Amino acid sequence: MRIHIQGSLGKYGVESFVQSLASSLKKINIQASITPPLGSLATRAITGRRPTAKNDLQKHLFRSPGSQTDLMHLNYAFPSLPLVLNPSTKVPLLYTVHGVPRPHLEPEIRYKIGYMLEQASLRAVAKRVDRVIAISGYVQKLLLNSYGIRSDVIHNGVDTEVFHPVPPETKLSLRSNMGIPVDAKVVLFVGRLYPYKDPLTLVKSIHTVVSRLPSVVFVIVGEGPLMNAMTSEISKSGVRASVRLVAFLPRSELVRMVQMADVQVSTAPTEMLGFSVLEAMSCHVPVVAAASGGPVEVLGRSGTFFNPGHEIDLAEKTIAILQDDETRSARGQLAREIVLRNHTWDKVASRYADAYNSVADGSRKRPSIS
């Protein structure tokens, strides 16, 4: 089977999904190539050069008797409109929904407009493709309740060979390299510093944690419009010495950051799934997460959950797991087992292969939309 996967508009979640899935599909003899998400005209306008034929989305819009494309895998709604609305499109289409657009939560106008366009296009695209995949049960419910779109769930994966546990002595070495005391407990946050991620709840919880556990160090990895507000809150609460603020890192450095942590925190109350959660789980790092959204369903019994938006509850849950070495280790071990059982990219690729086959052979009808 030969498929074309619509590439990413950004450099984080969808980009990781596209690259990892394409690589894993090739291991099971599915020829997967990645096409520009916006087609040749938009790509030329953005990059200043015309894409090569093999990477040009427009080359794969129509199925002819000599076509080498068995299926197109879409990852966005708005950029896909020219394809799905063109009556000449014959190639089967599968659409993965990575999240339900929430433009009202975006402070930057460029993202707000982009998500508004995506929101306006989502139902039209889902109506015309052969199968819709949601990355979590949470996204599946949002699609049904907000748009009347029925979908199937295939959770994202994580590279378990890259994100792997390290022995205690390696953790200490990694901390030493960052200037963190070897006897400190490390709480990690990884994510965009945007309202929908709610990093301010984490920052507001820090004073309570360090007042009872003074040796705890919080490492916050991310960039975004909330940085100034977070810095102000950190200074106001007098916890600057207990916080390390780090910009987004190259993957190799991010891996080491996750591996050195004792606990990772996910504060987003409406997280669609969260690659950072899966990465922590894969590194044997227990996760404290908001008791809502996609992380709940992948963490299961390995997770520690707090009331979304409540910094005191987050602080209490964080303190409890930091003080209990046995529970922390057990939950980290369980998290790793869950990932190995359900979320390796090889397993995810196998599930997508089944989905592709059901679409390509015509056994799967287009999803019903109420």
Q: Could you provide a short overview of the structure?
A:
This protein folds into two domains: 172 residues, 3-Layer(aba) Sandwich (Rossmann fold), CATH 3.40.50; 175 residues, Glycogen Phosphorylase B (Rossmann fold, 3-Layer(aba) Sandwich), CATH 3.40.50.2000. Helices cover 44% and strands 14% of the residues.
Uncertain stretches:
40-66
Largest sheet: 6 strands, parallel
The CATH superfamily of the largest domain is known as Glycogen Phosphorylase B
Radius of gyration from CA coordinates: 22 Å
Could you say what the CATH architecture of the largest domain is?
3-Layer(aba) Sandwich
**Kindly, what is the distance between the CA atoms of the first and last residues, rounded to a whole number of angstroms?**
32 Å
Q: Estimate the strand proportion.
A: 5-15%
Overall pLDDT level: 90
Strand order of the largest sheet: 2-1-3-4-5-6
Principal-axis shape: globular
Protein described:
The chain is about 45% helix and about 15% strand. Helix 1 crosses helix 14 (about 345-360). The protein has helices at about 15-25, 40-45, 80-85, 110-130, 135-145, 170-175, 200-210, 225-235, 250-260, 275-280, 295-300, 310-325, 325-340, 345-360, and strands at about 1-5, 30-35, 70-75, 95, 130-135, 150-155, 185-190, 215-220, 245, 265, 285-290, 305. The chain has 14 helices and twelve strands. It has two domains: about 1-155 and about 345-360, Glycogen Phosphorylase B (Rossmann fold); about 170-340, Glycogen Phosphorylase B (Rossmann fold, 3-Layer(aba) Sandwich), CATH 3.40.50.2000. The protein starts with a strand and ends in a 10-residue tail after the last helix. With about 375 residues, it is an alpha/beta fold. The longest helix has 20 residues, at about 110-130. Helix 3 links the parallel strand 3 (about 70-75) and strand 4. Residues about 40-65 have low confidence and may be disordered. The chain has a six-stranded parallel sheet with strand order 2-1-3-4-5-6, sandwiched between helices. It has a six-stranded parallel sheet with strand order 9-8-7-10-11-12, with helices on both faces.
